[in-house]
Amino acid sequence: MLDMHTHSTLSHDGENDMREMVEHAFKSGLKVIASTEHIDLNVYYSSKYKNNILIPRGHKEIRKLKEEYADKIKLIYGVEFAQSVHDKAFAKEIIDEYQFDYVLGSVHAVREISDFYYLDYNELDNHDLMTKFFNETLEMVEWGEIDAVAHLTYPLRYIVGRCKIDFKLSTFDNKIREIFKVMVAKNIALELNTCGMRLDNYNRPDPDFGYFELYKEMGGDMVTIGSDAHNKQFIGCDIPAALKKLKEIGFDRVTYFEKRKPFYLDI
């Protein structure tokens, strides 16, 4: 089993240090774990997030742990890079500087709007917000400097899960098809993020399994899977059940990355 999306205290919102995360993953029987610490480009130099300190520190710490655990578990040096298209040239500089194994692209906020986590969706035009979200996601995959797309339906955790708003995502199916078309052409993987499966009032992955059926119909065959764990107890959470569902859809393998190249594990 593998988990390609985790956060330690090297991210501003992680609860366990990287060693605790890796050790727990090893004791839980995982074969592969990726450290995907946050870089949210719109707050990269913010004193609140201190990414300008945590990322260089993590660069050294994770490489040390990779060597230490080499005969126990494969540790992937990744990053969850959000809002990369807000400054593409700067984002590329950061990616090149730290030589990550794996770049997981995400959209946590759109231009001129704060992080989705902090919004009051009862006061917003959610259709307009999701239009901006998918437009920036499309821009990100067209840019192409990522290996996988994280939690493709991320704002629904809060619109549907937290605020219990009935939102018809099917309105955006054509836009999602556009995104998948570019991903397939550029060999960008689609992440199955299991975080939503453990959230009250949501109980589904990001994106939902139906979109993996669409992705496969469109020729997509690169799927990553991650718990989005921010503490050690959620590492690997719901991944066995999600892998079983992927198998039923027709996927025989899942993808991980080393040195920005794809490798595969059979389901």
Describe the structure.
The chain is α/β, with parallel strands linked by helices and 267 residues long. The protein has helices at 18-27, 51-68, 88-98, 126-143, 156-162, 173-186, 209-217, 239-249; strands at residues 2-3, 32-40, 74-82, 102-106, 148-149, 189-193, 223-226, 253-258, 261-266. The strands form two sheets. The chain has a seven-stranded parallel sheet. It has a two-stranded antiparallel sheet with strand order 8-9. Strand 2 (32-40), helix 2 (51-68) and strand 3 form a beta-alpha-beta unit. The radius of gyration is 17 Å and the shape is globular. The mean pLDDT is 93.
What's the topology here?
Layout: E1 2-3, H1 18-27, E2 32-40, H2 51-68, E3 74-82, H3 88-98, E4 102-106, H4 126-143, E5 148-149, H5 156-162, H6 173-186, E6 189-193, H7 209-217, E7 223-226, H8 239-249, E8 253-258, E9 261-266
Parallel strand pairs: 1-2, 2-3, 3-4, 4-5, 5-6, 6-7
Antiparallel strand pairs: 8-9
Helix pairs in contact: 4-6
Strand content: 15-25%
Count the strands? Answer: 9
Instruction: Bin the helical content.
Output: 25-40%
The major β-sheet equals: 7 strands, parallel
Mean pLDDT, as a whole number?
A: 93
Parts with pLDDT < 50 across at least 5 consecutive residues: none
Gap from first CA to last CA = 8 Å
What's the helix-strand series?
EHEHEHEHEHHEHEHEE
Task: Give the overall silhouette.
Answer: globular
Q: Give me the side-by-side strand order of the main sheet.
A: 1-2-3-4-5-6-7
What is the rounded Rg?
17 Å
Alpha-beta content class = alpha/beta
Total of helices: 8
